[in-house]
Amino acid sequence: MMSPPANIRRIGVLTGGGDCPGLNAVLRAVVKTAILQHGIEVAGIEDGFQGLIDDRVRPLTTRDVSGILVRGGTVLGSNNRCNPRRYHVGDDHEGNPVYRDVTDRCVEVARRHRLDAIIVIGGDGTMAAASSLVEKGLNIVGVPKTIDNDIVGTEISFGFLTAVNTATEALDKLHSTADSHHRVMVCELMGRNAGWITLTAGIASGSDVILLPEIPFEMESVAEFIDARMTKGPGFAIVAVAEGARMRGGEQVVARTVHNSPDPIRLGGIGQRVADGIAKLCRVETRTTVLGHIQRGGTPIPADRILATHFGYHAIQTLMLGGRNRMVVRQNNIFGDVDLLHAAGKQRLVPEDHPLISAGRAIGISFGDGVPHSHYPTAQPAVVV
Ligand code: F6P
Fold first, then answer.
1. For 236-288, what is each residue's pLDDT tens digit?
2. Which of 109, 160, 182, 309 has the fewest Cβ atoms nearer than 10 Å?
3. What's the rounded Cα separation, in Å, for the pair 247 and 123?
4. Ligand 1 geometric centre to CA of 192 (Å)
5. 256 CB less than 6 Å from ligand 1?
């Protein structure tokens, strides 16, 4: 066992934002590396930053994390409605939300539990929330989490590959039923502003149309493509659409607004709109599937277990090497770390000239933007997420 630096004796760990497969695998790696390799104590903070506000902090032992590697979700609980800088304390008499800055309270609870640093496992919103605690003097090391794979500074976040696996399986299943009934099956996938899941699962499943938030589509272009496939092609089609996709000149489809969330917009409904548009313009039968939170659940696939273990281990190593306010990342297959604020509140979108889009166009996939695939420039050497 290595002896800990004098300033790190005890750390906290929390999981923030929407859950995703692999959170428990990171927790396990963090707790085991901290205790077994460095002899430092670990405290688990429940339900993200909410646990700091409510003082729900408990010791974690290696026993507590034994057997959780393969479990979906997070044994600590999570929360995507809690930003300590803008904490929702209730509504005024007119029903408007009232917010308060509770960062001092978080710092006080962290100090009371003698936390020399906190490992924060979360996405861009969680990193943004963490930055407000960094400003108050807490030392935080972030671990990038999201199925959307849109965190700036890292080529991949854990949870993404499992979500792609789940989405691909769903699209594969829609294929056979679309074929049998000569229908157009539209599947709406997660991905608020970044279409990584839809692009990757769409390509992996052989979807015919892929609609991404980054490439506004035209209903007429989609319909023209579908019409040709239904009349001159195999007579069925699969459309993979990201929840954040929108028609050119149009807006994203909002399902609801969650007022007490740091990121209040919840998208949903574009799949049905696309299916209705196709049915109307092509006079074919369509069906819509919204895969939803199934993409966030379940056991992480082996690649995510490995990635999560790497990230958890690396977070502790970064801390023990004196890192302050860093986020662990992977770039070009190498693990490293960047300034925590680098990723806060930003998103890594799919570039329109991404090699996978070029490859998709080359093999005849429509991205709904009317770009004739046969005229698209040759793909760059592929570096896939
Ligand atoms: O950020 C991950 C994500 O899964 C998005 O793709 C989706 O829009 C959102 O979370 C849904 O969040 P909630 O858990 O509030 O429904």
1. 999 999 999 999 999 999 999 887 777 789 999 999 999 999 999 999 999 99
2. 182
3. 27
4. 7
5. no
pTM of the model: 0.94
CATH 3.40.50.970 fits 10-158+300-343, yes or no: no
Catalytic residue annotation: 148
Q: Which fold has domain 164-296?
A: Rossmann fold (3.40.50)
Pairwise CA distance, residues 203 & 24, whole Å: 29
Contact indicator for 58, 27 with CB cutoff of 8 Å: no
Integer Cα distance of 350 and 106 in angstroms: 35
Ligand 1 pocket test: pick from 189, 192, 196 the residue with the most ligand atoms within 8 Å of its Cβ. Answer: 192
Task: Please check whether the two domains, 10-158+300-343 and 164-296, share a CATH topology.
Answer: yes
- Tell me the pLDDT tens digit for each residue of 306-361: 999 999 999 999 999 999 999 999 999 999 999 998 888 789 999 999 999 999 99
Atom of ligand 1 nearest to the CA of 150: 1
For the CA atoms of 262, 294, 149, 28, the dihedral, rounded to the nearest 10 degrees, stands at: 90
Q: What is the DSSP string of 153-199?
A: T-S--BTHHHHHHHHHHHHHHHHHHHHHHT-EEEEEE--SS--HHHH
Contact 87, 102 (CB under 8 A): yes
198, 166 Cβ separation under 8 angstroms: no
Cα–Cα distance between 355 and 191 in angstroms, integer?
Answer: 19
SS3 280: helix
